[in-house]
Amino acid sequence: MKDLQVPERRQFVKRVSRVLAGLGAGLLIGSAALADDAGRALAQRVYDRADGEDATSVVTMSLTEEGRSPRVRSMVVYRLSGEGGEVSTLIRFTDPADIAGTGLLTLDAADGASNQWIYLPAMQRVRRVDSNRKGGRFVNSDYYFEDLRDRKPTMDTHRVIGQETLDGVACDVLESVPVEAGNSVYLRRVSWIDPVSLLPLRVDFFEKDAEQPSKRLEVVVRDQVQGYWTAMDSTLSDLRSGHRTRLVVERIAYDRGLPTRLFSSKALEDERGEKEFRP
Amino acid sequence: MQAEHKGWLVRGMASLASAMLLATGALAADGGLGLKVDSLRVEFGGFTDHPRASGDAFAHMAVSAGGGEGDWSYALGARLDAFSQFGSADFTRVRADYTENYLRWRGEELRLTLGTQNVMWGRVDEISPIDRMSRVDLSRAMLDKLPDRRRAVPAVRAEYFGDDFKLDAVWLPVFDDAVMPHGDSVWHPVDAVKGRLLGFGTLPGLAGVKVREADEDGSGGGGLRLTAGGDGLDYGVSVQRVRQSQPYYRVSPGVLTAIHPYDTVIGAELETERLGATWRMELAWRSDVPLTTPGFQYRTDPGVDLVVGAEFFPGDGETRVTLQLAGHRTLTDVSVLDRTEFYVMTGEIEHPFAHGRWRADLRFMAGLGEHDLYLNPRLTYTGIDQHELFVAAHVFSGSEQTLGGYYSRNDSVMLGWQAKF
Hints:
heterodimer, A: mainly beta, 13-stranded antiparallel β-sheet, globular, B: mainly beta, 18-stranded antiparallel beta barrel, three-stranded antiparallel β-sheet, 2 helices, 27 strands, 6% helix, 56% strand
């Protein structure tokens, strides 16, 4: 029912696996055809930040709006990094009941090619879904599909536009502008990077007005788990409507030796088999 | 009108057993058995133009429990459906049925399942020529989407998961036929009052006809399906020798006999992502499409079904569109009363708005080359997790032999609520 009857999207996988399972909003940043070397280097460092061979996290997503009751989704996110930049991700929604059991499997090849499948319990069918969406909201949250996908640094031009203290942390402020306008729904993004954790503590997204941000991501809590910096609690706000999406990592474990068979169509359609790996 | 078929005993016993086990399970919930309400649903509405029905109501509940240990797991489930129709052709019917009740063993690469289970083969929406294993639910005609028009079936199933492929073998040891509407329901494919039969239109001598079930004993058949995927393309082939769940009505003087003939179905399917859309295709060759000659002789001939569908998001936005072009051709050179060639466009436009607290949908089916139309607009409030409140309309029109024509007096407006816990 509801949100996930629409084939929900694969990009979530990567983004969630990074943003939520510890990889932070590093994807929000890119580099490559840089405007300045410092910007490119910073974007690359954020992208390359250590995040383990694999990660398993239990995540809660809360959608809140002034005067309305919050809507809460829970999910388990598995991520396995392969050789040469391959990334496999499996997400299983566990709550509420109308989307519980829904699974998303994403296989990202090293060359950037991506395949994604969804399992809908009501249909008991595994279906291929569109891997190229950028716009559209993921499960009615403030995250666009682009926000959730792996964004290579080469897709943007980067420059460091200053330093600013955020919650007592002296951050590098990084501006990222798409190399090609068509590769993003945003005109530009500005990120406040913590030089220690290399996590963006805040990201402003500019959609239609290059001077006025439309959305803001703020990392409220970050922790080192097994030595890896992880965004444990973050909120993405729609600055016009006030609608907010909060992501909380309830539990996370890195380097558990997740097997490749967990990232298969069998595991996607067999929730019982996948449950054995929940933290 | 329609005699209750023999399957009621099987279903009744299975449902009773499920209910007892579920009750036991609920008591033992602390022991790890998870009891769930899979679906609660109430709909109430009125017909705008039907001569014998002013409105109808529908209530449905499905519950299940599951558990297991190690490589073994099990599921228990049952459902209850209540229908009422108001007007001169009024009735109320409450019916229990089984859902999934199985014992399953899972190995590294093999999964074996014994019991009633959902088996939905195929990839496309609305009309799936390869989906021949499952039990069809025609109790509300096509008012619901495809998954809600399918029910569990008694089966023995073996699924082998290879590195890049899956082999699925299913045997249906006990045949259980489609779930049909009450004989007086406006959704029944036989209109004994007007002498009409869905797919045929009005036939002479059909007014006041009796409907009876043919012998349903025996196996439902079986089949094999091989699917593979990866790198931008998923595909599969299948072969099935199955009895058709949906009845075909054999015509004889004063009597329509609901039969479920065997049919060999050879299918091919693929799914890929191209040009900003996800494409899905199914092709099926059938050995025995049931037919009726103008002299009411029953025969079968081969036939071919093809469905090509696409799913896309215009402007890369919130709106999801699915379109399917479906075609059927019966390979016969004999004059028959059935439609031997037809093409329809089906689809759905779905648009969430207000941060997903509302959703507007339009399902449709439109005949190509022949007037046949079904429209199902629906506005749903989804702002409360696990609940949906909706208002929907069902509009039909078409020529005599078509689905839209047969149900052309069934235009209705419905209010409903559904939930899952």
